[in-house]
Design goal:
The protein is mainly α. 71% of the residues lie in helices and 5% in strands. The chain contains 7 helices and 2 strands, in the order ββααααααα. It has a two-stranded antiparallel ribbon.
């Protein structure tokens, strides 16, 4: 089953793949910042410890925005919400603060890698979200008929 988007088709398989990636990354981030990264954080000077904590919050925020967006795509595909509802601002990708490259350079390697992975995932989802409005084109009557026929057969 496919979900129609402005740029063509965003497949449920792609959404599921992004969702799995986001959940795995969220679990890895939680494990690192809550447990494994504690010793690395404690070894940092006081201001870098604060930066470390701020970056952990930014990562969490990015990932939660991505996961919420992906759940909206799943709800749309399942028919739980309409495409009009999915385009409402509250259901779009939330704004997440950028990470400062100067701050990142001072953090432990594992923290940097996780932060950069969250930024990369967020950027990919941001591009998809931006396409929803950018190329929203009305269907022609012929295209609407073809879509109806595809859904029946």
């Amino acid at each position: 089953m496919h979900m129609a988007t402005a740029q063509g088709r965003l497949t449920s398989r792609l959404v599921d793949s992004f969702y799995t990636e986001a959940m795995l990354l969220a679990d890895e981030v939680r494990a690192y910042f809550d447990h494994y990264g504690r010793a690395e954080r404690e070894a940092l000077p006081p201001m870098q410890r604060v930066s470390f904590s701020c970056e952990s919050l930014k990562v969490t925020t990015r990932l939660m925005h991505v996961i919420a967006w992906l759940l909206t795509r799943r709800a749309l595909e399942a028919g739980e919400i309409t495409s009009e509802q999915a385009r409402q601002p509250a259901r779009r990708l939330g704004i997440a603060a950028d990470s400062d490259p100067v701050v990142l350079a001072q953090l432990p390697e594992t923290a940097r890698a996780l932060i950069e992975a969250s930024c990369d995932l967020y950027a990919r989802i941001h591009r998809l979200d931006g396409e929803i409005d950018r190329q929203q084109m009305p269907y022609s009557p012929a295209r609407m008929l073809m879509n109806r026929l595809e859904s029946v057969f």
